[in-house]
Amino acid sequence: MDHTVFIGPLLILFFVLLGIGFRGFEKLKGFTYTIMIFASVTAAMFYPVFFQEMGGFKLSGLITPLLQIIMFGMGTSMSLRDFHGVVKMPKGVLIGVFCQFSIMPFIGYTLAKSSGFPPEIAAGLILIGCSPSGMASNVMSFLAKANLALSITITAITTMLAPFITPVLMGWLAGEFVEVNVWGMFLDIVKIVIIPIGAGLLFNKYLGGKMKWLDAAMPLVSMIGIAVIIVIITAAGRDNLLSIGPLLILLVLFHNLSGYTLGYWMGKLFRMNESDCRTIALEVGMQNAGLASGLAKEMGKIATVGLAAAVFGPMMNITGSVLASYWHRKPPKDEAAT
Predict the structure, then answer these.
(1) Is 328 helix (H, G, I), strand (E, B) or coil?
(2) What is the pLDDT of residues 167-181, one digit of tens each?
């Protein structure tokens, strides 16, 4: 409408005030962070220049170290006990890992082929599908009264397998859209995920509980880090978002909801109980969008390949919160009977 000088600040203020207002309602409080992401993304769309470079330093250079900090925080909240579920719940873990690295990659490939997007943007749909699950799925599993122990184990296993599976899937499915250096992507995932999580595990083992200020700060640092990453990607890909944004949002939403639906019914197919089916649904539908963003940055294609991840992150938090709230009000039958 050519009135950005007025519309931009008003929209940003609207989302900020809406987020503050949500804090006053117990049922809406969980959406405050997502609303603040909307405010940040709006600022990046209207004023992209402020989020691209500062004093000659390209802000995209912050993405990898921020992800390493986030992954370190993830490691500090984990322990070797999180991997014991492989022995205690082998069926659930096997099904969860299989669904994670089959359903989402192939849905992403199908969407990329049918989207009509430029190749690099289409490849981003495959990249988010080939990524492992993240910590957000654990939070949603807890809220949904799903099997939290199974959720944590699947997240841990898929994250550890990501260096080996994600590059191979990308080379296979996305190779026709964009050049994929499989070995380079393996090293990138090791650098971004495995080393920081390993350091976090060691920290938790030897210093866990001795630095309580750090334990308390890491969730907030992670939230801020994710917001900064999304804003940087949004600013870098603003022009592309303006041209294909609505369709990209629609396809990402379909990708996300398909993961929940197919994950849940795959659990039913293998005769898993309701709690475990909810866990599989959330693990499959919620991806590690941060890792996908970092890999896009390492590929030097943050403004194209990274766009789907930037949209997927906030989207899955909204849909995941809604689904978890719905399931929270409908306890599994076996739990309701006790």
Answers:
(1) helix
(2) 999 999 999 999 999
